[in-house]
Amino acid sequence: MTLQQQRPVRSGAVRSWVAGARLKTLPVTFAPLVVGLAIAEEAGAVDWWHAALTAVLVLGFVLGTNFFNDYSDGIRGVDDHRAGPARLVGSGRATPRQVFRHGAVLYAVGALAGLVLAVLVSWWVLPLTVSLALGGWFYTGGARPYGYRGLGEISIFLFHGVVFVCAPAAIQLGHVPAVALGAAVPLGFLAVALLTTNNLRDIPTDAAAGKITLAVRMGAGPTRQFYVLCVAAAFVSAVLLAAARPGAFLVLGAVPVAVLPVRRVLGGAAGRDLIPALEHTCLLLLAFGSLQAIGLAL
Q1: pTM as predicted
Q2: Greatest mean pLDDT range, 87-96, 107-116, 265-274
């Protein structure tokens, strides 16, 4: 039986669909959004209806991309023997069509929010919306997905760092303040660290399936060093930001949260043993982003 011929999942599958949305990784999305809004709040210019629409815009495309990623990797056989949590298509818990439909619905929700914001705020939200859609789909979708060519780290730095900090601030303030660009850099580095943990775990299965991520290109050893470099760069860049915004020093309170994932990655953990490192990198993003937001809003 082919993937396309598999029967839909049984009803108990609400839990499967929640897992397919990858909600545990949402700190990589919420952290920059909160920081962007904190920057606007410090300037005294937060419209909470616009903030809610911004969250719907971003979450629609992020969650939709998770389903499209499941769909694209699943039909290529990349997820058939993965070390991490089972995916919907790869595990046979849902058909490719079902997963694609979920992604499309979420993209439609995000696009609608983007359209409303374009009417209420400015026309430039439309090209932003299009870029989120194209960036998300072509990560693993299409004939030549850029995530299969070692470019995923650049994408996640730009979207989960620069765009997701600067867009909420710009929607509220009408421009991108310099502090937003400065605050986006450390969060971008941590987003890259999160992706690096995931790709380090999946090196054997990705290489076998022809998914040539940066981790596959570099090999396990350099990838572990790259992860630590990204975490260190996040804290260093935040301290540099503190020269202009002293409140940014608060992020140093997240240093203890970085100890466990760094030790596990450097300690040679592989396969499923890297899952705790991935989970704690999400916690690091949450702690770092929360402290940075508080510091910048003071």
Answers
A1: 0.92
A2: 107-116
